[in-house]
Amino acid sequence: LRPPTVIGQFHTPFFGSVCIFFLSILGFAVYGNEALYFSCDPDKREVNLFCYNEFRPITPQVFWELRLVIVLVPGAFFHLYAACKSIKQEENLQKSFYTCFYIFSLFLRIILEAVAFWLQIQLFGFKVNAIYMCDMGALEKKFNITRCMVPEHFEKTIFLIAMYTFTVVTVVLCVAEIFEISWKFRFLKKV
């Protein structure tokens, strides 16, 4: 069952294909070797692992894949409901319950995108610095702060900005879809 709006028909393939492309090809190229080349002074395995885990509590690829699944769930519920009720494509916006359910799924998607956007800012910020200052107090070392080199920091910053931009575009598409539905619903009520 296709989404009942033109924007929705664009949004789903856009969201899925662009996000999968970013995560699978570009994400792996940028973040795939990050832990291997993350090095601290002193360059010891235990220090590097500890500081890398402090630097990246969750890898961006895992976070974005989780975000992709969570954001697609509201739309999947609508489509599952529509399939179970054998709703025809042309009936999607003709009955107010179906329309309200679809709009609810869009609002839920917007909320989930906003939460993911906020979490992304908290976890990754807007810029990846070349040097990360690691607090090794938990390892009970003599020197509590050590400097760590972050590999390919500029590429990671560009990738973060691209993912932020992608999130903003998807939220704008969801809002535009709500306006399209309200316009179509108003038009169908007059007919």
Layout of strands and helices, then pairs:
Blueprint: H1 6-31, H2 34-37, E1 39-40, H3 45-55, H4 60-84, H5 96-124, E2 131-135, E3 145-149, H6 153-190
Antiparallel strand pairs: 1-3, 2-3
Number of E strands: 3
Largest sheet: 3 strands, antiparallel
Q: Strand pairing plus helix content: what structural class?
A: mainly alpha
The gross shape turns out to be: elongated
CATH topology name:
de novo design (two linked rop proteins)
| Helix fraction by DSSP (H/I, runs of at least 4) | 55-70%
Q: CATH homologous superfamily name?
A: Gap junction channel protein cysteine-rich domain
CATH C-level class is Mainly Alpha
In N-to-C order, the SSE pattern is: HHEHHHEEH
Rg over alpha carbons: 22 Å
State the CATH architecture: Up-down Bundle
What does it look like?
- This protein has 191 residues and is mainly alpha-helical.
- It is built from six helices and three strands, in the order ααβαααββα.
- The chain starts with 5 loop residues before the first helix and ends with a helix.
- It has a three-stranded antiparallel sheet.
- It has one domain (6-189): de novo design (two linked rop proteins) (Up-down Bundle).
- Helices cover 70% and strands 6% of the residues.
- Helix 1 runs antiparallel to helix 4 (60-84) and helix 1 runs antiparallel to helix 6 (153-190).
- It has helices spanning 6-31, 34-37, 45-55, 60-84, 96-124, 153-190, and strands spanning 39-40, 131-135, 145-149.
- The chain crosses the membrane at residues 12-31, 62-84, 96-119, 158-179.
- Keywords: Cell membrane, Membrane, Transmembrane, Transmembrane helix.
